[in-house]
Every structure is written in structure tokens, then in C-alpha cells.
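[scheduler] slot 2 assigned
[scheduler] job type: sequence-to-structure, two independent chains
[scheduler] chain ordering preserved from manifest
[runner] begin chain α
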Amino acid sequence: MSSSNEKHSRILRGNGGPVTSAATKEGPLYFLRVFTLIMLAVVVQTTIAPHITVLGAKPDSALVLVVCVALIRGPVWGATVGFVTGLLLDVALVQTLGISSFLFTLAGYFSGRYGEGADMDSWIPPLITVFISTLVVQLLNAVMMYLLGVEASVSFVLIRILLPTAILNGLLTPPLFVAARWWLGGERMHAFFAE
């Protein structure tokens, strides 16, 4: 009996942290918070972001938010939030269905994997992760568009889209990371529920 309680306590404690019930952290209200964050990201990306242009690039606040959630919550949350956000963006912008959801899922998962071992008390990991995620997502998006028949100059894509967008997203990272961390409760849990 005591060994069962000790095992259950160890599972809930995780890596030596305090014992918290997964049900209280990730109940229906928590999922509503995450969904609200996703909807806000999609609304900002489809209404405000298209009107902001810096050096010919537009910010990708939805991608920044997906990466921030992944860094805070881990790869499962990152992939899930990435998939839902990308799918809603594809529908809202009437784009080829599935491209954004695929790319955002990859970005969310791998950012979450990186976040498991990174020190999130420093600004460096979120900035680097958003910068690299933006470059990879934009590059893969350009390749997919090329395969679908949309042709563009490689130098144009690199100089006018990839780098300015990555820099712009890097500038958006600190406020969005702080806001996401505050809104989601600030604690990192790397699965939907304790096993």
C-alpha cells in the first residue's frame, strides 16, 4: 500500500518538483485557456499582422506563440497547439489546407523537445528557438510552394522573406513569451496528463 502511494507521489512529482495534481492543472478551464490563446493568435495573424511590414516582411505571431507554448509546456502541447493553430490559419486565410498545420506541428514538437533541456529563465533559448523555427518553417514553406508551382527567386526568398521575418519574430518573442507564460500559469509540464 505504501509503495503504491510512494510510486504515485513520484509520478506526480516528476523531476523532483512539488507534487501537483495533473487534473487541477489541465482541467477543462486550462484547455479553454489554451484554446483562447490559439484563437487570439489566429485573429492577430489574420487581421493585424498583414498590415505590419518591416523591411518587406510580415511578422508571424502565430508561429512565435506556438514556439513559446512548446517551450513552456513541452513537445506534446507544442505539436498539438501547432497543429490546431496551423489548421485554423489555413482555413481563415483560405490557403492550401494542411501546409501550415504540418509546419507548425513540426515547429511545436521540436521546439518543445529543445525546451525540455533548455534554461527557460534566460532569454537566449526562446530567441534562438523562434529564430531557427522561423527560418526552417519559412524555408520548408517556400519549398512546398515551389512544388505546388509557385515560383520565386531564391535570393528574394532568402533576403526579403526568411531573414527579415526571422528577425521580426525574434523581436516579438520576449513579450509573447512572457504573456504566454503568465497566461498558462508559468509551470512546465511535458505531457497532457500524468501517467
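[runner] end chain α
[runner] begin chain β
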Amino acid sequence: MTSGIIIAITGLLLIAYLFDLSSAKTRIPSVILLLATGWAVRRLTEWFHLSIPDLQPLLPIFGTVGLILIVLEGSLELEFNKSKTTLIRKSLLASFLPLFALAFLMAWVFHYFSPASFKDHLTNVIPLCVISSSIAIPSVKALNQYNREFVTYESSLSDIAGVLFFNFVALNENLGFHSLGNFILQLLLMILISFVATLLLGFMLHRIDHHIKFAPIILLVILIYTIAKVYHLPALLFILLLGLFMGNLDELKNLKWIQKLRPAELNEEVKKFKELTIEGAFLIRALFFLLFGFLINTNEILNPDSFLWSVGVVMAIFFLRAIQLRLLKLPFSPLLFIAPRGLITILLFLSIDPSVRIPLVNRSLILQVIVLTALVMMLGLMTNKKNAASISEV
């Protein structure tokens, strides 16, 4: 039995690796293939009458660890310098404005059809408004540098803004100046904690000579994030600041207290740490989506009652995205199509208190929106590939 489980898990992860290798050429998002594979494995276990324990409790665990590693991986890629100022400004606007606009628009529409409070509707729809960096970043490896950087900035910042916005709405009974003041204090406290923890981790990365070096640092990152989350602090901000610090040592090397860390030597360690983070993020992301696909019931994805709502949500997503790109003077193709929903959407949906959930936002809606946005992205990237090929032939 144990050997069979090991063979199944390693085989599935190798298949996930093949999906990741082929996605750059086929433009098929690996998340669709992973969900389909997980779903197919579930059908096979039912066909052969295999007894499988309840795996649902593992989903938030893989999701949380995956989120940490994915945002850390994305933030390590981000460069902060004067040449990136315009790109960063546009990415900030592209991640923040559509998030709030879409959330309030959908909450208002859903509120018209449901008797729950507007705050409860806002809590339920925010997960649908966050771009998934876990899907977007790996899917744009074949694009030009500017588009890759924009998607990396936008999706990473969307993840963080979405989690902050969700926590602010979900954890406050009344949304007013008092709750806003508390939220700002929590934000400042988290920035202070992040600053101290980042310096400590940077010092550890520089000074540890033991052959086991990166594992304790990653474990400490997960521990700090989890403790901060327990106290309802914006923990994802710590991951972003840590990644930005480590990924931009060259920009900070003139500071005296940075020079004590010997940035030239530390940069070499950061490269190794980044490689380990990328590898770990791939494994956890693959396990998460395989498990989520395994837990999908066929009637959820084919639910006709939620399908029209799902199509409406997806149309609203890309309509607002088109306006956003026009206002920011960014190219429509292929950026218009890169707005997938994924890991963050699932995690935030699972964390909604059952007492405030509304019937319109259910597992079927969440799943259908994830699949539809991934399909739109796939078609957009395929079209972009054809256009690029025809241009190169001219």
C-alpha cells in the first residue's frame, strides 16, 4: 500500500513537471491539466473501488504553504530601480483599481438578488477579484520581458492587495474610520515586524555555515507568516518585503548597514535560495491543484445553475480589464487575457465564515470562474503566439 502511494504521488508530480515544460510551447495553462489529472485520478479510484481517506483538510495547508512560496518567488523576481518606476506605477494601479471596482460592482449586483448584507456580499466576492500569481506568472514565460515583468508585478501585488482587502472586510464587524484606523496600525506593525525579521533572515543567510542552510530559513518564513496570520496581521506583506529585500541587494549595497552583510557574497546565497524557492513552489503548487482536482465533484463543474453567473463574472472581469489597459495605455494583446483566478481565490473562499456565505457564491461558481479565466488566458496566449509567428514571417 505504501509503495503504491509513493509511486502514485511521484508519478503525478512527474506528469505535472511535463505539463510545466510543455505549457510554454502549447500555451495551455498547467493548472487546467493539473485539475483534469486530479479529477481523472478520482474517477479511477472510484472505478477500482479504492478506499481513499478524506483529503479535504490538506487543501488549506498546501494552499497556505504554496501561497507563501509563490509570492516569495514572485517578489524575488521584482526589481526596484529608477528604470522600473513607470512599470511599477502602472502595475500598482492595474492590481488595485480593478480589484476594488470589480468587488464593489459584483457585491452590488449580488446584493440585488440576495437578502444578505452588503458587507457579507463584499466578503464573498473579493476572492473572485484577485488575479492568481500562481497561474499567471508560470504562464507568461514565453512573452517578452516587459509583459513578463508587468504580469509578475501585477499578479503578485493583486494577491497581496486581495488578501489585505479581504481581511479588512471579513474581520471587522463595522467598516468605518475606527476599523480603518486599526487596519492601518496593523499594517504599520507588520511593516516593522517585516523589517526586523528580514534583517534577521538576511543575517542568518549570510552567517550560517552549516550544510543545511536554506531549510531553516524557509521554515522560519512560514512560521512568522503563520503567527502573524493568527493575530490577523497582513502577513503576506512580510513575504513581499522579504523577497524585495533579497532580490534587490544591488540597489541597497551603498547603505552602511547593508554593507555589513557583504552584499556581493550574500547575492550568491540569494541565488541558491531563489532556486530552492522556485523548486519548492512548483512542488506545492502541483500538489495543491492535483488535490483540488481530485476533490472536484463532476456535478460542481457542470452545475447549470451557477454557469450563467460564472459567465457574467468572467465577462465583468475582462470588460473592466479592457478599460484598465486602455486607461494605462498598455497593449491589449496578450495582457487583456491574462487575468486568471486560482489558488488565492480558493484559499479566500475556504476561509469565509459559513455564517456569512451567500448561496450565489458556491464551490461551483468558484471552480467555473477559475476554469473559464484559465481557458480565456489559454486562447489569448495561443492567439498571441500565432500573431507573433506571422509577424516574424513577414
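[runner] end chain β
[qc] chain β: The chain has one domain: 2-393.
[scheduler] slot 2 released
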